[in-house]
Amino acid sequence: MSFECHEPSSVTDAVALGARFGEEGRFLAGGTDLIIQMRRGKVGPRHVMSLHRVSGLDRIEADGAVRLGALVTHRTIERCPAFQGPLQALVESAAVVGGHQIRNVATVGGNIVNASPAADVVPVLLALDATVTCLGPDGERTLTLDGFLTGPGQTARRPGELLTSVRFDQLPPGSATAFVKAGRRKAMEISVVCVAVRLTLDAAHARCQEARIALGAVAPTTLRARAAERALEGQPLTDEVLRRAGRLAAGECGPIDDVRASARYRRLLVETLVPRALRRSLERIGRAA
Amino acid sequence: MSRLALSLRINGETHEVLTAPHRTLLDVLRDDLGLTGTKENCLEAECGVCTVLLDGRAVNACILLAAQCRGRDIVTIEGLASGGELHPLQRAFVERGAVQCGYCIPGMILSAKAYLEECPEASEDGIREALAGNLCRCTGYQKITEAVATAARELYGGRTTQ
Asked: Which domains does chain A have, with CATH numbers?
């Protein structure tokens, strides 16, 4: 590793440095991905712009819409009182990332920009229809998270642009979320498959009004299982309907064989974990009612 | 190559360091300041032997640039004993036989310290979860967990279950 280190003290200064260095610069947040990639020689920026002196990006606002600054850590998400109710999948996903040492520094913005298909918090954000805001030399733009993630390690972020926040709407009454992860051990594990779901029931709690299912580690990006979602919406959520959603989700993902698991096993996991996460979400709506 | 002049507060003392921008806190602790209690191993934040406390929270010094630690409060294993007396966590590790080769122990103790300060009512599950980022290849963790529970009782008088 060899680079010049810059320590901007404001978002404005950070974005100015981003514009100046373009492809030769990288923003550094928690460093849990970037420093390792640099040490492995996978990336070799000539300029590292560390964001540790930038204030204001480490806060969660939850009055009305929820907005997470890019530098909010996994630790902060785990302990956020606003995420103890229907949004608890955020806590569930943040709490299984690495060990305490990682979660104390790893940020939500870094997790999104790193664009690992196996990211844990990203599927939950996708199930919440999150948008991301980027600030660059041409000003600010907001994109859907789904559109932002374009491939493994690839996003729609332009050179020099800084992802500043991620945002989503509060859930309507009769909603809940759940996150389920499969790995080979309980801790310090990269997901073999992870599943995030969000359900909203109609006023009578008889039928599904809106469903979101997001899958991790089974495609080049975190993936919405849209056919499975459509199979739930407007339906009474019987066990057969939930299992059918699992089968559809398994059919629409595109896993690969790798060191952690075979593609076939990953599909079997999706088929099982999607109904499990949906059931958990339904139970939570029932308990809150 | 440019150099950064850093003022680092480590174990209550301020150290002035002149270092290259790419150097990590681990590099500076071990190579510049001779604080070799913080160990080096995987250099990928997987094993936890380089754990130190940054503003009271456990972090992996191997992936933290020294520059990111300006103005922050750093505690290493050398900062725990005071006046020739071991910290209760250190004493519990010795008395409970939690140490074999010892390489993971500084990191274990600092992770445990951060956990107990946040959760003085320590549970066995909580201890194990707090130490998940610290790998030991000798002891099998049982005695380490017991040592942390012992220290929790001594420090906070808790009723930690073993």
From this structure: 1-52 (3.30.43.10), 175-288 (3.30.390.50)
